[in-house]
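Lecture notes, unit on protein representations.

Consider one protein chain, 372 amino acids long.
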Amino acid sequence: MNVFRRVALVSAGLALALHGLALPPAAPGPLKTQNVVVIVTDGLRWQEVFRGAETALISDKPGGVEDVPATKAAFWRPTAGERREVLLPFFWTVIAKQGQLYGNVDAGSSAQVVNGYKFSYPGYNEILTGAGDPRIDKNEYGPNPNVSVFEWLNATPELAGRVWVVGGWDAFPRIFNRDRSRLPMRTGWDTPFPGPSSPRQQLVNTLYRTITHEFSDMPWDALLQQTLLDIVAAEKPRLLFVGYGETDEWAHDGRYDLVLSSAHNVDAFLRELWETMQAIPQYRDRTTFIITTDHGRGDGPENWKHHDWNVEGAENMWIAVLGPDTPALGERRNTARVTQSQIAATVAALFGKDWRSANPSAGAPLAEAIGR
């Protein structure tokens, strides 16, 4: 080959290669998610999620454990990896393999609330709106003046009438501002099925009415789960909020054994909900779960029970994401801090919407969690 022609061909190939390097990256394809479920288990510490049961608290004092040997048999194992898996098997055999988990402080993964108050109403407001609000300074605060991402998405043509709230705490009607948002809800001890259409619904109504009310402001999580499964089957919501509450209540009561049992039960409820939805064509391979808590708690023999603006460590929480658009990166390590304020924009982004166009103060979506 003529040397000049060889040089010309090499130069042309080099130019093409350089041109290819200069091309912008391909735009990400459309998201597969068509349904989103935001699930909150109130006040469950990151320590239990990532370390499992804490040795010092499986005790009469300071853990308030009624049957120490039985609790150890159920939840104590030699290593943190074993302890967390026996406590939360769905988290660690499914989410950690197919999704992502943020918030293991021990592994350099920080997930925090930013509202400063570190208790429930401000936390739920931050989850739902993407920003703290200094006006919301007590759990008894009235109807939320802020529009939630749930209310905003319910006003879109695609999701109108397909947004639901199923939560234990009787404050949720105020937090979601039911009078303004008009979102359908099942909350507190209200009769879950005002017009029961099956013997099962009649039975659930009877249980709500007749079972002992250990907590005046919320039913047992097991009752809530039965309501939830019926709502999913009958209403097929595309955006769903679920709020479990016992993990917080038992911690305030100083019963570490029941905190562990409640967390274990919630894990089983999540598996049941996931498998139920995956068996329905609308939801199969088209649904993302965002699982989190509204605040952390303190550490040590007393502060594990508490959370508030003055409790150190109660700002630390956790977030888990599982769905068809979430890269299977598992437990995140040595990552930049994520915040509770990013959840609202993440929900909207999964539907192809920009929540920050409506609420510029909201946190940005969790880009890694949705492959963006």
